[in-house]
Write a structure and sequence with these properties.
By secondary structure, this protein is mainly alpha-helical. It contains 8 helices and no strands.
Length: about 200
């Protein structure tokens, strides 16, 4: 399923890019997305972070917490991509870079808390900001240096180049999905209450 979605996403990206180029350079009508040209897997997809299975899991957890007897002793929530709930240790590199960008002295001085590679990455990010601070506003699509890293990763993984100007960084899957849905819902009778 995921490979099918990835392949369809590549086709959609290339088709969309092609349509945009035609629209800009040849003044042709821009192709619109419809049920007819969207991958059927996407149409049937369910966002499992919430829903009946998760609701039932919450009920079972509450019953266990009250002391009810079940043929199991705990509920493991697997719907939110949280490997730490299954005992996997967090990847420390990301947290070290975040700590060093939030407190730049950790990135600027050698110390026993932040390894050299994490300090170097944090300094690269800090130098790409307006005031050596992640507290300042950045481009609405995200830091360009990070978007460039994403394009390099996509090229290594998928074999095709994407411009950093076409990358939008979000603070999680849910905001990304909401952004895309807002983009796709263009009917005038559908209100977008989030941005009004």
């Amino acid at each position: 399923f995921l490979q099918s979605v990835r392949n369809q996403s590549k086709k959609l990206l290339l088709t969309t890019t092609s349509c945009c180029e035609e629209n800009i350079f040849m003044n042709k009508r821009f192709a619109q997305l419809s049920r007819a040209n969207i991958n059927p897997h996407v149409i049937r997809a369910e966002y499992a972070v919430r829903g009946p299975i998760v609701s039932r899991a919450n009920e079972l957890k509450q019953e266990l917490d009250k002391g009810d007897t079940k043929p199991f002793s705990k509920v493991v929530f697997c719907n939110i991509g949280n490997p730490q709930s299954l005992g996997q240790q967090p990847i420390s590199f990301f947290r070290q870079v975040l700590a060093a960008t939030a407190y730049p002295l950790l990135a600027q001085r050698e110390n026993n808390f932040i390894p050299t590679d994490a300090r170097e990455r944090a300094m690269r990010y800090l130098k790409s900001t307006a005031a050596m601070s992640i507290g300042a506003y950045t481009h609405s699509q995200g830091l360009e240096v990070v978007r460039e890293e994403v394009t390099d990763f996509l090229f290594r993984r998928d074999g095709f180049r994407v411009s950093p100007s076409n990358i939008f960084l979000t603070d999680g899957a849910s905001p990304g999905i909401q952004l895309l849905l807002n983009l796709l819902i263009s009917h005038p009778k559908v209100k977008n209450t989030k941005f009004q």
